[in-house]
Design a protein that fits this description.
Helix content is 35%, strand content 18%. By secondary structure, it is of the alpha/beta class. It has a single domain, classed as Rossmann fold (3-Layer(aba) Sandwich). It binds 5-O-phosphono-beta-D-ribofuranosylamine. The site of 5-O-phosphono-beta-D-ribofuranosylamine has 16 residues, from helix 1, strand 5 and helix 6. GO terms for molecular function: phosphoribosylglycinamide formyltransferase activity. (6R)-10-formyltetrahydrofolate binds at residues 63, 88-91, 105. Keywords: Purine biosynthesis, Transferase.
């Protein structure tokens, strides 16, 4: 599995840790970031996992060129499954098509509620009693695709977007490894 990140990579770290036991159903062979300064790169290196940076900025608006470069790195590492974990790039149909059924994402809301950004502020503004996170197969729309699992957390009276985000993130760290373990144990995502 490759984990794609743009930032702190706490979900990525949870996935690497879950892959440590010898009988774990997946192995993290690569952590790839589109940002050279993503904090998660050092986190992955400290855990002995190979890292790669495919910086999108020198390519300007050429999304296709960036994705071709990403694809080349994924293929070079023999990747079978791609886990997006705070990867802040919109994907084109080309890359999504390449990984159809083998690319998953985690999103900090109870999809189909609140795709996109600022999910916690939107949940609070709506007066929701609960929030949560979702893992889904990646399809062409933003945060769209068949759901693989969700976790729910309560919204508390004094919550701010930051406090709610922290509670949801803790749930993400449990949900993502569990869903991916089930996914891989079931043989989904396996290349022929
Ligand atoms: C998580 O909340 C994830 O659901 C969202 O971005 C955040 C990434 O956090 N897509 P981290 O980089 O895994 O710490």
């Amino acid at each position: 599995m490759a984990v794609l990140i743009s930032g702190a990579g706490s979900n990525m770290a949870a996935l690497i840790d879950a892959a440590q036991p010898s009988d774990a159903p997946f192995e993290v062979v690569l952590v790839l970031s589109n940002k050279p300064d993503a904090g998660g790169l050092a986190v992955a290196q400290a855990r002995g996992v190979a890292t790669a940076v495919v910086d999108h900025r020198p390519l300007g608006k050429d999304r296709a060129a960036h994705e071709r470069a990403v694809q080349t790195v994924l293929e070079a590492h023999g990747v079978e499954v791609v886990a997006l974990a705070g990867y802040m790039r919109l994907l084109t149909p080309w890359l999504v098509g390449r990984w159809q059924g083998r690319m998953v994402n985690i999103h900090p809301s109870l999809l189909p509620k609140y795709p996109g950004l600022d999910t916690h502020a939107r949940a609070l503004a709506a007066g929701d009693a609960e929030a949560g996170c979702s893992v889904h197969l990646v399809a062409e729309g933003v945060d769209d695709g068949p759901l693989l699992g969700q976790s729910r957390v309560p919204v508390l009276p004094d919550d701010t977007p930051a406090s709610l985000a922290q509670r949801v993130l803790t749930a993400e760290h449990e949900l993502y490894p569990r869903v991916l373990a089930d996914f891989c144990r079931a043989g989904r995502g396996r290349t022929q």
